[in-house]
Amino acid sequence: MLLKTGTQILQRLPTRAACSVRTWTSVTTSRDALIVHSLKDTSFPYIWLRDSCQAPESVHPSTRQKLHRSSDVPLDTKPANLKDGAKINVGEGSAETGVRVSEDGVEIRWADGRTSFFAREFLRVHANEQSLKEAHFSERTESTPWTSATITKSPNLFVEYGSLQERTGLVDAMSQLLKYGLVFVTGVPTEEKVNETCELKTLAEKFGEIRRTFYGELWDVINVQNSKNIAYTNLDLGLHMDLLYFHHPPRFQALHCLRNRVIGGTSFFVDALHASHTLFHQDRAQFDLLTTTPVAFQYLNDGHHLYKQHPTIQLEDPAKDASNLSLTSPPPISHINYSPPFQGPLPLGTPAEFYPALRKFSDILDDPQNTYSYTLREGDCVLFDNRRVLHARTAFQEKEGADWVPGVKFGSGDSMTNRWLKGCYLEADAVSDRVRVGLTKLASS
Ligand SMILES: [Fe+2]
After folding, report:
1. Strands (DSSP E) found in 13-121
2. What are the start and end residues of each CATH 3.30.2020.30 domain in the chain?
3. Start and end of every TauD/TfdA-like domain (predicted)?
């Protein structure tokens, strides 16, 4: 039976990728791998090919889930009648000889009698890390570091709420959030202020799935008249990230400005990914210290006991990159963990060198050239990457003859407020999922 491999994957790929293999010439069989000459002589090990087979026997046609374990593939898997060093051109080979090349791809009959087919595009996509990334839309989703000057040139820093009704507008906004970690949606209705019916819930669910925390699904940041609680005052809030005392802090945060009748209260955003890259180039030893020294974050209040240690700069692959002194560019960074207000006491064994390293990092973060500032207007909603982009807010003052309105309920009665943001957190995977699906649909429309 002929098993078609990779057909379903190709249906999800952008059409631009389907045209990129211009020539399709020949393959050569070696002892352990198939060498595809049109893909820069990429070697595809037989064990990888057999394990990656997506035929109905290998991948369930309906669930698209793998039906065998990688550990099940025999270590000596090879095509039937393998001839070492045999070059097979398009239109040559046969099932009997184990490998056959056609205009569409490569068919392999395995020694145990099964047959797989590997489409040209499937092989191209998996030939190297870069093409695999591109197939998963890295160009529109991978983090791009920014400064104050460069973020203003990003294509969709401000988008109209109405534009999110169209797939193109929504994909552009989500792509902006994934790439730069910062997007402002303007013109979001402010009339509904109750969590169940407010526009932020609708907006957030367009982007992804709301992450519920002990603050609830949606929560309010308000300035309360005569407040005794610092959280509800007009004091300065320095650069920070939210909920770093969680094992898995929320990736994105959305803040919708429902009311703003004060002077000041400007929001600040800083790309800590860019700051990390700057530190890498300025002082590699200090960069390394921030990737390896755990910092404690905690919330011991209001009946909660939350505690987690994270390194300030979290590498994607610490085992590979933390001690690789030959690197000339920053290694991939998965998250930044920087939130001074939520720090607990540092571990007693923290190296003395860590303190000046953290000071240096803070100085880079505080550099005005790295700061994007914006005063939210009523109807603006900012979404940002809470694992990468720091946020802050300056103090604000009451206007003459302050315009107070009822805010959220505290205890028995309404509070009065003149600055009111409603917020929520969003999970990362739902946003990535929707933007990739949207890009696939746009590419095929
Ligand atoms: Fe915050």
Report:
1. 26-29, 33-36, 42-45, 86-89, 99-101, 105-109, 115-119
2. 4-134
3. 169-401
CA 346 to ligand 1 center in whole angstroms: 21
- The CATH class given to the 4-134 domain equals alpha beta
Closest CA to 49 of 73, 67, 69, 84: 73
Q: Residue 221 Cα, ligand 1 centroid: separation in angstroms?
A: 9
Q: What is the token pair recorded at 133? A: 């990334």
Span from the CA of 124 to the centroid of ligand 1 (angstroms): 44
CA dihedral 436, 145, 334, 16 (to 10 degrees): 30
Structure tokens at 162: 């109405």
Q: How far is the CA of 240 from the centre of ligand 1 (A)?
A: 6
Instruction: Note the pLDDT tens digit of each residue in 233-282.
Output: 667 789 999 999 999 999 999 999 998 888 888 999 999 999 999 999 99
CATH 3.60.130.10 residue ranges for the chain: 137-445
Model confidence, pTM: 0.88
Cα(76) to ligand 1 centroid in Å equals: 55
